[in-house]
Amino acid sequence: MTMTTTAQQRALATQQAQTAEKTGATVELTGLRRRFGATQALDGFTLTLVPGELVALLGPSGCGKTTALRVLAGFETVDSGRIVVDGVDQSRIPAQRRDMGMVFQSYSLFPNMTALDNVAFGLRMRKVPSQQRRDRAKEQLELVGLAPEADKYPHQMSGGQQQRVALARALAIEPRVLLLDEPLSALDAKVRVQLREQIRVLQTRLKITTLFVTHDQEEALSMADRVCVMRAGQIEQVDTPSTLYSAPATPFVAEFVGTMNRIPGVITDDGRVGLLGTAVDIRTAVVGSGFGGNAVIASGTPVDVLVRPEGLAVTPSPEGRGIVMTTTFLGSITRLGVLLDEDVMVYADLSNASVAIPTGSAVEVTLTERSVMVADRTEPAHSAVESPVEA
Amino acid sequence: MVALGELEALALDDRENLLARPPRPWSSVRLRNIAWWRGVVLVLTGAFFLLPLFSALRFSLESFSGGLTFSAYTAIPSQLGFTAALSLSVRLAVVTTAITLGLMVPTSVYVHLRLPRLRPFFDSITIIPIVIPPVVLIVGVLQVAPTFLKSTPYLLALEYTILAMPFVYRSLDAGLRAIDLKTLVEASRSLGGGWRTTLWRVIVPNLRTGILSATVLTLALVLGEFTMASLDLYQTVPVWIAQFAQDDGHISTAVSLLSLVVTWLVLVVISSFDLRRIRRMAQIRRDA
Q1: What is the DSSP string of B199-210?
Q2: Where are the alpha helices (H) located in chain A, listed in sequence order?
């Protein structure tokens, strides 16, 4: 949802004026370690957020992303490591004094309070005078387009409205850092897209340093300035969404972000990789887990070649090496699932403007890329299934 | 209807046809039979509870000449020891409720937030006061009670607090299970709310039904408890009634009935706080 109404624009201008000199904070998380029983939730987690930046923590369930956020919020302690905000160590500061706004995954509005009272709660804790408190709370509600709902109780509002009120409540205290813990996961698809745009617009204009936890790569890639991909309590890669997609640092990132095919290949004598009846260069920027950065891989070594669906071309051919098993309509493209001779399933994107290829057709699959990423054949696949979500 | 044995005896096709058939609507005769049985159960249950009350009411209104009189009721306030007993019962009810809620609300919240795995353990230990004989509880309380309380009737408040614990814990536990406590607490803390503020402004208002339920149960328990007060030699209303019954059965019966009605009215008033809120919420929902 874009900011369209005059009231919203006015509220935003007021808020911007108020926070003009109060831009976001610098957050430094250094060497965080946290263990829960046998699980190492954070294992040397180090991340720095620059003022006004939105960083998304992305990773599979149990990778430690929520723990990292909760540690920063003050709801969890660390076994070791430092949490510094604007040069001040936060380790001994309780959650209520950290000056961080937070929006939770579940609806967290206080059920006994109206939307206005919910938004005013943080201001009340800061002993802002009553009238001023109400005025500022109304401004915040206007900011998220919910001024008419000010007197409604949470149970009278939809999930999307409740999360917008929760956002207004978190912003009302003018936090140094905004923490978003999967705030969109309980909402339906349409509301989710609207609200994520609204969050991004507000965060950008108010210049609040924001840490956003999500397991939805589409959310992370569309909203964040940088995305931090996590696995098993460690950071795999922190980069801009486009770099993460086009130049993943590890096979895990390559497969976790977007859809990635793993096709068996063999290193040729000239240091290239042979697959699908051709030989192509190995992209040096990509690290194969077992091979190291720019290490030379011996000729004849079996590898897995990582290719995105848009890096494959599919053409109907009675003598082709594959059979179309599935077709999935994704708007401007159709994604074909093709079973190759080697009993390998690959996915390829076909423009809807091109000739339709029905399920069961014999096809030829070829590479359209001139260089590819390779990974150790022993590296387990992380996302073998097709994801309709694409960057 | 076809019995199970008959169903097995049917050919497969017939069986499938029979099972595919929509269930036959209940006949009006059958419904009337059920309504009749319901009525019987209701009347029997009502008679079980109301007949003793009716008998007591009739007995308390009987005059020596055989007619009806309110003299037993009008004479209550002037009876020796009644006002003091009533005052003591009310004070004990208020003090016990305050101690119980003051102890149990933070404890229950703490258990839910910090020790959720120990909830089954707390469920079981809070039953102990029900299974331990009152005299054992009294001895236990006497061992740990502060000396200055041992010679005052407020010792009973401590005993009643233990006695009320199973009911209060369960009421609060049910209330806490109904809210997303962890998220609400964390939301409050992230907005700057300290523990006391969070408890008072966020948890207690949302635990209102559980707290009212706990209050009702504690009041009812204290106003009706006889054994502990009698063993501790304090004259609360139930003890006074039992003792006075030896002097004048009409008046003691009248007091019993009145205390029942007054207790019931107090409970209705307390419950109505929540009822009003529930109705208001329902109205808001309807309007929405």
Answers
A1: IIIIIHHHTHHH
A2: 6-18, 65-73, 115-125, 130-143, 159-172, 189-206, 217-223, 241-246, 251-256
Contact between B186 and A94 using a beta-carbon 8 Å cutoff: no
- Asked if B206's CB is within 8 angstroms of A101's CB, the reply is no
Note whether A265 and A355 are same-domain residues: yes
- ipTM for this model: 0.79
B191 touches chain A (CB under 8 A): yes
Q: Is the pLDDT of residue A7 over 80?
A: no
A325 Cβ contact partners less than 8 Å away, ≥ 6 residues apart: A337, A338, A339, A345, A359
B282 and B161 in a single domain? The answer is yes
pLDDT at position A379, please? 47
pLDDT in tens, B3-23: 444 544 455 555 555 555 655
Rounded CA separation A33/A77 (Å)? 9
Shared domain for A202 and A56, answered yes or no, is yes
Top mean pLDDT of A86-100, A305-319, B139-153 is at A86-100
Which tens digit of pLDDT belongs to each residue from B199-230? Answer: 999 999 999 889 998 998 999 899 889 999 99
Q: What is the pLDDT of residue A4?
A: 47
- B163 and B211 in a common domain: yes
Domain that holds residue B38: 23-69
Verify that B150 and B43 share a domain, yes or no. Answer: no
Q: How confident is the model at residue B1 (pLDDT cuts 50, 70, 90)?
A: very low
Q: In this predicted structure, what is the pLDDT of residue B98?
A: 96
* The dihedral sign for the CA sequence B143, B145, B148, B152: negative
Does the beta carbon of B282 lie under 8 angstroms from any beta carbon of chain A?
A: no
pLDDT in tens, A74-133: 999 999 999 999 999 998 899 999 999 999 998 899 999 999 999 999 999 999 999 999
Pairing mode, strands A209-214 and A177-181: parallel
In terms of domains, do B135 and B58 share one?
no
With CA atoms as reference, the chain A residue closest to B179 would be A111
In a domain, A389, yes or no: no
- Identify whether residues B61 and B161 lie together within a single domain: no
In a domain, A383, yes or no: no
Q: Within the 102-131 window of chain A, which residues sit less than 8 Å (CB to CB) from chain B?
A: 102, 104, 106-112, 121-122, 125-126
The CATH number covering residue A167 comes to 3.40.50.300
Q: Which helix (H) or strand (E) holds A16?
A: helix A6-18
In a domain, A63, yes or no: yes
Give the gap in angstroms from C-alpha B196 to the nearest C-alpha of chain A: 12
Q: What is the mean pLDDT of residues A317-338?
A: 87
Partner-chain contact B205 A112, CB within 8 Å: yes
Task: Please classify residue B149 by burial: count the beta carbons closer than 10 Å to its beta carbon, then call 0-12 exposed, 13-18 middle and 19+ buried.
Answer: middle
Residue at a domain's end among A246, A271, A301? A246
Please name every residue paired with A302 in a beta bridge, in sequence order, or none if there are none. Answer: A266
pLDDT confidence bin for A257, thresholds 50/70/90: confident
Tokens of A333: 């493209």
Q: How many residues does chain A have?
A: 391
Both B174 and B47 in a single domain?
no
**Does residue B15 belong to any structural domain of this protein?**
no
Residue A185 near chain B (CB below 8 Å):
no
Question: Which of A98, A108, A149 to probe by mutation at the B interface, max B CB count within 10 Å?
Answer: A108
Task: Let me know whether B45 and B132 are in one domain.
Answer: no
